[in-house]
Predict the structure of TonB-dependent receptor plug.
Amino acid sequence: MSPSYTCRFTPGLLAGTAIALCLTLGAFSKTVWAQEAEPAAIDDEQEKSEANEETEASTKPISPAYKFTPVTVTATRNERSLLDTAGNITRITSDDLDKRMDNTIAETFRYEPGIVVPRQVSGADPFDSNGGIQIRGAGGNRTQIIVDGSRTLEGITDNTRDVVDTSNMKAVEIVRGPTSVLWGSDGLGGVVNFITKDPVDYFKDADDMVAGNASAHYSSLDNSYVESVTGAFRLTTGPNPLEALFTFTRRDAEEPELSNARNVATPDGTTCPRDPAATPCNEFDPRDITSNNLLTKLVWSPSANNQLRLTGEYFTRETTVDQNSSRETTATYTQTGYRRVQDIQRWRIALDQDWQVGLPWLDALKWQLSYSPQEIKHRGDRRRILLPSNDDQQLLYTLDYSETFYEADIQLNSSFNIGASSHALTYGFDGDYAETEYFRRDITNNLTTGTSTTAVAGGFNFADAETTRADIYVQDEIGLFGERLTLTPGARLSTYKITPDPGPGYQIVPGAEPREMEETDLQLKFGAIYDVWGPYSVYGAYGEGFKMPTAQQLYQSLNSLPFFALVPNPNLRPESVKNYEAGLRGSFERGYFSINYFKADYEDFIQNFVPVAGSATDLTYANLSRVNVWGIEASGGYQFTPNWRTNFSAAHMRGSQQVTAGAQETTFNGAPPLNVVIGLNYVEPAYGLDIELVSTLQKATTRVEDRATDFAPSGYAILDLLTSWEVVPGVKLRADAYNLLDQRYFAAGNAGFPIGTDATLAVQRLNPIELQVGYGRFVKVGLELTF
């Protein structure tokens, strides 16, 4: 291997982490002393007065410019401080998103250790889509992604779950660990809830009738321009206002520049095997991206404690790629061009109510009805010259994948006391009906002879399906010993049914015919938080998760013999997880810290393209015996002065897997090693300045399943600079610089990328490792107007 792949940052990483922890904990100890120490008795009245003034000065809040413990609504379905929940939850606020000028999923999670957003850039999926959000080693469809509580479509082979624009988000909440009890059966690794803004988020004063903002920013990475405009309106005045929101965001971008990539196919420097006329191995194919996101809301409050809201959202993104990387000459043809288009659309219409009822037996009622059709369309136009005839050939393909969701969610809250214990019940119904459709058509035209053939049900074809989920859940937050101890037991009874509906051309495999699958499962959770002393608390949690196989996993069927055949597996078992977690926290006047250990035991993980026993060509989906992931997560922040603050977050994981019972245990590549993010922030409100330096430190990957065939990324350290200046009230300029030192690196999520004998000629051509290299130095600049 070349030095660039083998260098490590382990000593600097450990030193930087140790320094940050020592500074933070040292600062915490001073704050605790100031809060807890009692001044000694002083006889002299003047000295006592001076001592009191000195004590007050030491304990007086310093008007921090940063709120360290925001509330979350996803962890318990109720508003709670992040530090008052039995689990590790992160809330990325709209201020964070605006400050970083984030617009894509990959950008949103760049400063979240332990969260991996895979980059998909293979020849089969050249659109640079994000493959999903991986939490604690569980990615793909094992992370539940919701928008205001509504589902987003599941991912399929060579496709994406990247169907959300973050420009109109109030917050993005990440709950690590299984969330099945409160949010349904799909959150094995965790849940990501994108929470959109409301009109009230823009009004500065109670009597404002109109408010809003407009912004634009540019990124040198992909030559992208993002423009957004928002208007919030109070249509009526008085105690029962009617409010409206309109926000529209447009993004235009090209392919990102890989300034630090090399034109090689493997880490050891194998020459790029692509045709001289093709895109080299260190560049993306030419790409044009356009996206539009429209969000509208109508909010009416019939009373001070009752709110009705109608939401309409439309998101679309079209990506056009000239896939020049596939240009080649073989014994039978010369490929001269390949244009592909991916069109993503997501609609959402929702009606919800939040009513603080105030009855003796019912505190609050929340319900939501939503309709959300979502689809991803692929179109391809490939041109070839056939040899030796020199006929012009055109290959057209169409792939339509869609999921349409009809959802209903009813949540009730009741509170009561039994003896010295207080109880806050959250209970209700969560159900949905989903229609999944897949269509593939391939047309081959000989433009010279005028002949044409059409085939359907190709690609990774699977049967259409209808899925019904109907769950009931309950959670009780029990306060004991004057609320010093909070216990949170919970349970969910999940019922799930998936019914196949094979379309034209679906290939029935004898013995593996598609059939209806129905399951009922009870998931349990339990959490406990205990205020040990003063600002310190400990917590423990146990949670279970449950996930049914998807329609593709159950019903995929394709006969591509003599090369291979994809065989359905209607006997797949649901995936499940048991998660154990324990943590220590401290919440202080000027800061906080939290550190926790977790262990997740996954069973029956479903793996794709598993060879069928006794066959040299058949592939299927199959359950792995088990996957175990464990690790440590930490975060903290401290306000030194009204102008200076620091924060950090860290995660370190390890994992193992066992393919079948009794098989040898091997390393699980999906558990990233130590990653630390440290930020130092300076604000000067008098001049409207906000400057933050962020360092990301990544430990080298030393454990992979097979060192000979699995890539192990080296460690690295990168620095980012985020700045903004409010020139005059309502006018803000932003300028950010990422990877200031222009470091060449590979993200830890690339562990397991095929190298050695697994890096076949096809892999080298279609998916060279250099397309996974981290982005070099780039800048963003922006302007925001607020009124």
Q: What stands out?
A: The chain has a mean pLDDT of 88. The first strand starts at residue 71 and ends at 72. The longest helix spans residues 10-36.
